[in-house]
Write a structure and sequence with these properties.
heterodimer; A: about 350 residues; Alpha-Beta Plaits; 3-stranded antiparallel sheet; two-stranded antiparallel ribbon; 16 helices; about 55% helix; about 5% strand; B: alpha+beta; two-stranded antiparallel sheet; 8 helices; 6 strands
Chain lengths: ~350, ~190
């Protein structure tokens, strides 16, 4: 059927593991950074020379790490700060594009130093699409574990989270929240955007003694995903996902189906967290290049391509039963089956 | 269909009732709690427009003075930073302004001139009926705690404190006051 050289690069199906590693590292950092902050306040309240040798280890290693980035020893521990919403990563200030959109909507003013911090995420989103949702978002990490919990519930016979809604609804959420921002006098998206909430609440819980209001909202979205619609918040409600989908509409890196290798098993559709339709080439702007479909495909029929446009639906896969029935050499002998197809 | 309509009405009704409460002005009028915004922050309305609720100022604060609002000050100031000087006061290190990505807390260099020119969190006020020095017992703790001694806070006879216009409202005097309740406290200037 296919020549060996048309097989995709063999590591692509392992990208999903790399993605989980990325999600785990981001989540772990969101937990460790508040502890580092606590350590920093401890250092600030004690003289360095009076610390126990074991207490100096963190400081010394952070000092080594930060040496290329800071000039003042006072800022030795300021290397890693913040969350995915806005933070400092090895001296580089990064902000979420949604934070920029929300801030501009609320104040009506463009603050250029702040715009600069969002440029790298915006550029990456233009090239890679909604990759933040699948590869970085700390809420996504919890939501995907929540999906696994949902499948366990299904295994014991509780069929929850089956409802489907319109994916366009999240664009409405985005625009309504942005329009309401000046009226509310605040950056309203920050209160309903799960990754911002997760980062913030982990920090509150570790450094400030307890969860805040956002944790209640986030627990609500987890229940919504589990009981009403699978991955419902990301699919139908998330304003950030809506913004990245719009930005990533003409992204360059896309997953595409190789119709010759596809056997119509539909595992890709079952595994797609965002409810897309890889089986019928239906990726669209909402695909986050998470590679879950690539990992699950038994015939390696899903590959990465550098192209600004999706393919149109090219019909059933050539390894599928229906296609073979119609196109096999014996098809002429049995016209009845051909009519039926 | 009926249930959906009911849910729709319920959501719309809740939103309609919450909306006036949520506006910034209402939040400012509530004013139940006395709090300071981080050093250099603009007036309340502009601050709320600029702050993206990232929590970086809190993570940068080496004194753990910066805390974050829940719903108690209105929805507009949800997750925004504030300082309660009696619990933990600002040491004017200006690290929060340095890390703030939006300029909601502006960048201010750590010099007395720049701090005095740009920081106006509030101003200290002495309650003479509570202050020990005004009751004939020499104290002077607030003067010793003040980062701008003889500029913002002068002492007279029996170490009686006199606050001047140069006070930036860091709250270290209020934090250090040995009277309970405190005899010197910061009157916030954020609204």
């Amino acid at each position: 059927m296919t020549s060996p050289d048309s097989k995709p690069f063999f590591l692509w199906r392992h990208l999903n593991k790399l993605r989980w590693l990325s999600l785990s590292i981001v989540f772990l950092m969101l937990v460790l950074i508040p502890f580092l902050h606590l350590y920093q306040t401890y250092i600030a309240a004690h003289a360095y020379d009076l610390l126990y040798p074991s207490e100096k280890i963190i400081y010394d290693s952070m000092e080594t790490l930060s040496a290329p980035f800071v000039s003042d020893p006072e800022n030795d521990l300021d290397l890693l700060k913040g969350t995915t919403w806005s933070g400092r990563l090895f001296g580089l200030d990064l902000s979420d594009p949604l934070a920029l959109a929300g801030q501009i909507a609320a104040s009506g003013k463009v603050l250029w130093p702040f715009v600069l911090t969002a440029l790298i995420p915006i550029g990456l989103t233009l090239l890679l699409g909604r990759f933040f949702c699948g590869w970085i978002c700390p809420a996504s990490f919890l939501y995907e574990l929540n999906t696994t919990l949902g499948s366990w519930l299904r295994n014991i016979g509780l069929h929850t989270g089956q409802r489907r809604m319109s994916r366009k609804f999240k664009y409405l959420v985005l625009f309504v929240t942005l329009l309401l921002s000046p009226l509310l006098g605040s950056v309203a998206v920050a209160a309903i955007y799960p990754p911002a909430i997760v980062g913030r609440e982990i920090y509150y819980a570790i450094a400030l003694g307890g969860f805040g209001v956002g944790a209640v909202f986030f627990a609500g979205t987890l229940l919504f995903d589990l009981l009403v619609a699978r991955r419902g918040f990301c699919r139908y409600l998330c304003p950030g996902g809506a913004l990245y989908s719009l930005l990533g509409r003409f992204r360059l890196l896309r997953i595409q189906r190789v119709v010759e290798d596809c056997n119509d098993c539909a595992k890709c559709n079952a595994v797609c967290e965002f409810g897309l339709d890889p089986l019928r080439d239906g990726f669209g702007q909402e695909c986050n290049n998470c590679t879950a479909c690539i990992a699950v495909c038994p015939t390696d029929a899903l590959v990465f391509k550098m192209t600004p446009k999706d393919q149109p639906d090219r019909g059933p896969g050539h390894l599928g039963r229906q296609y073979r029935r119609v196109h096999s050499e014996n098809a002429g002998d049995s016209p009845g089956i051909e009519d039926g197809s | 269909m009926k249930r959906r309509a009911f849910l729709g009405y319920a959501v719309a009704g809740t939103a309609a009732s919450l909306l006036p409460m949520a506006t910034a002005d209402a939040a400012m009028q509530q004013g139940g709690q006395r709090y300071l915004r981080p050093p250099g922050a603009p007036k309340e309305n502009e601050f709320l427009d600029r702050c993206i609720r990232c929590g970086l100022c809190g993570q940068a604060c080496p004194n753990r003075a910066i805390k974050f609002f829940g719903m108690e000050n209105g929805t507009a100031s949800l997750d925004t930073p504030y300082i309660t000087p009696r619990e933990q006061a600002c040491i004017l290190c200006m690290k929060c302004g340095d890390i703030c990505p939006t300029g909601a807390i502006p960048k201010i260099t750590r010099t007395a001139e720049d701090v005095m020119a740009k920081v106006d969190m509030g101003q200290a006020r002495v309650d003479k009926t509570l202050c020990l020095s005004y009751q004939g017992k020499t104290c002077g703790v607030c003067y010793r705690a003040c980062p701008l001694p003889d500029i913002a806070l002068r002492v007279g006879m029996l170490e009686q404190p006199h606050v001047s216009e140069a006070c930036v409202g860091c709250g270290l005097c209020e934090r250090s006051c040995i009277q309970i309740p405190q005899a010197i406290r910061i009157i916030p200037h954020h609204s």
